[in-house]
């Protein structure tokens, strides 16, 4: 395949990735208006967010098998169609439960859309071009959580929250037309059976872990139940791993975990992703509750983080060519930690320019770390293991991004308790302790990078010695 067509596929996948990630976060600032339309409390709308994320986490493991069985192009096209139609149904929903049902259907489309799209890019891109392709499909995952809140606030303030979902219709139609045109046709492999026990084990494990962390972040009178759910989730994770290692053709192919570079991006990279994803959750709350800004203006400040994401994009490939992955992950990881700690010390008395500079540098570092991790993950994975590695990586990445919000909420609640409060009405000190906790998580992630071989990922670094 020509480089130009590879770039076109990467751009198409990036666009669908942006659409899918945006819908996971854009409704945050629209919750009060949606709650009024459905005649329910704003807190009740959380089920619309969690149902979407849980559906993604549960169905993503099956994406590799579905793409291998029926071919990437028809599955990718069908996923875009389902996601787009479900978006329209979300916008037309007359009540909460019809909205939740549409969100679950939307999550089913998203679970196939992005992982299968990424698999197309991985299979059709030479190792020497992989760095640029991964950089292209990485930035939407960074931009969407930052752009989502201000965009949702703008649409809700000046039109209706329903347009948040209706806007996906023209985007989805365009993506579908391009998919038929530029995504290469492949022949499906109908000889591989579906691992139904593995599917149920993996899905229940994902639900248990994510639900347990979510329940811990809310606390309340049922806080005793959260550790139990989390413990059950952890036990199911071990059972799913055992099943995958002892089944001849498992749903989750874990062979790539034997490769140090891939294993590090799964284990240490997950902690980095959780820490980085917690920041866009904590910052708007800090600006609203600590600074007294409106939801829309707090979201606007996050655009500075997005500016940092964009500014780093043209620099990621040159930096990864100049320095080894280990050097980048360690050096940039330190900057991630420092900027997170910096967020703990900003206050309404801080100079606005200094706050904006901190947010901009934070955006630069988030972008670099995500791109380095996503590129290194597949740098040393051979073609025969790519499908399984991609499905498992997408599942772990989606869980990490989803858990980032829950971990941010949990850190804020624990910060309030440590500060002597009830954890329900955050103060500036509570936010400071929460950012300390998130930074500590990034420190643990950085500590694990020390075992990475200096030559790891050199296959995708042209000119590397």
- Low-confidence sequence ranges: 1-5
**Whole-number total of structural domains:** 3
Arithmetic mean pLDDT: 81
Look at the helices and sheets and give the structural class.
Answer: mainly alpha
Strand content: under 5%
Rg is 21 Å
Q: What are the secondary-structure elements, in order, as H or E? A: HHHHHHHHHHHHHHHHH
Question: Helix content range of the residues, please?
Answer: over 70%
Major sheet description? none
Number of helices: 17
CATH superfamily of the largest domain: MFS general substrate transporter like domains
* Shape type: globular
CATH architecture of the largest domain: Up-down Bundle
CATH fold-level name of the largest domain = Growth Hormone, Chain: A
- The number of strands is 0
- CATH class of the largest domain, named Mainly Alpha
| End-to-end CA span | 27 Å
Would you give an account of this structure?
- By secondary structure, the chain is mainly α.
- The chain folds into three domains: 1-183, Growth Hormone, Chain: A (Up-down Bundle), CATH 1.20.1250.20; 196-250; 255-465, Growth Hormone, Chain: A (Up-down Bundle).
- It has helices at 3-25, 31-38, 46-59, 63-70, 72-92, 96-124, 127-158, 163-166, 168-182, 196-218, 225-246, 260-290, 295-322, 325-345, 352-379, 386-418, 428-448.
- The two termini are 27 Å apart.
- Residues 1-5 have low confidence and may be disordered.
């Amino acid at each position: 395949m020509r480089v130009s067509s590879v770039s076109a596929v990467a751009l198409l996948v990036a666009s669908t990735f942006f659409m899918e990630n945006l819908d996971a976060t854009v409704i945050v600032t629209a919750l009060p208006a949606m709650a009024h339309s459905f005649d329910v409390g704003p807190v009740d709308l959380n089920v619309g967010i969690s149902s979407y994320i849980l559906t993604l986490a549960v169905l993503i493991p099956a994406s590799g098998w579905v793409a291998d069985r029926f071919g990437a192009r028809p599955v990718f096209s069908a996923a875009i169609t389902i996601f787009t139609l479900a978006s329209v149904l979300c916008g037309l929903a007359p009540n909460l439960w019809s909205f939740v049902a549409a969100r679950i259907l939307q999550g089913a489309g998203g679970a196939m859309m992005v992982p299968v799209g990424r698999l197309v890019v991985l299979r059709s891109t030479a190792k020497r071009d992989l760095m640029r392709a991964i950089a292209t499909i990485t930035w939407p995952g960074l931009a969407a959580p930052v752009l989502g809140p201000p965009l949702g606030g703008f649409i809700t303030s000046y039109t209706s929250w329903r347009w948040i979902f209706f806007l996906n219709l023209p985007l989805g139609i365009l993506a579908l037309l391009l998919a038929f045109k530029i995504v290469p046709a492949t022949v499906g492999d109908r000889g591989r059976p579906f691992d139904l026990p593995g599917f149920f084990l993996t899905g229940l494990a994902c639900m248990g872990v994510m639900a347990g962390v979510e329940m811990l972040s809310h606390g309340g009178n049922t806080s005793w139940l959260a550790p139990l759910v989390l413990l059950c989730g952890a036990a199911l994770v071990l059972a799913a791993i055992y099943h995958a290692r002892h089944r001849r053709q498992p749903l989750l192919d874990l062979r790539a975990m034997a490769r140090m570079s891939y294993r590090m991006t799964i284990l240490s990279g997950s902690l980095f992703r959780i820490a980085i994803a917690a920041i866009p959750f904590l910052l708007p709350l800090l600006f609203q509750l600590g600074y007294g800004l409106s939801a829309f203006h707090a979201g606007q400040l996050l655009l500075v983080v997005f500016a940092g994401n964009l500014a780093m994009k043209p620099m990621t490939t040159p930096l990864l060519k100049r320095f080894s992955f280990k050097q980048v992950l360690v050096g940039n990881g330190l900057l991630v930690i420092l900027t997170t700690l910096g967020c703990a010390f900003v206050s309404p008395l801080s100079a606005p320019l200094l706050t904006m500079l901190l947010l901009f540098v934070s955006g630069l570092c988030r972008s670099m770390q995500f791109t380095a991790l996503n590129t290194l993950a597949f740098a040393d994975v051979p073609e025969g293991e790519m499908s399984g590695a991609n499905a498992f990586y997408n599942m772990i990445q989606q869980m990490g991004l989803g858990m980032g919000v829950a971990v941010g909420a949990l850190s804020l609640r624990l910060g309030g308790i440590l500060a002597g409060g009830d954890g329900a009405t955050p103060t500036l000190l509570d936010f400071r302790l929460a950012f300390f906790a998130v930074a500590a998580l990034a420190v643990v992630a950085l500590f694990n990078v020390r075992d990475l071989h200096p030559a790891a990922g050199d296959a995708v670094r042209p000119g590397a010695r």
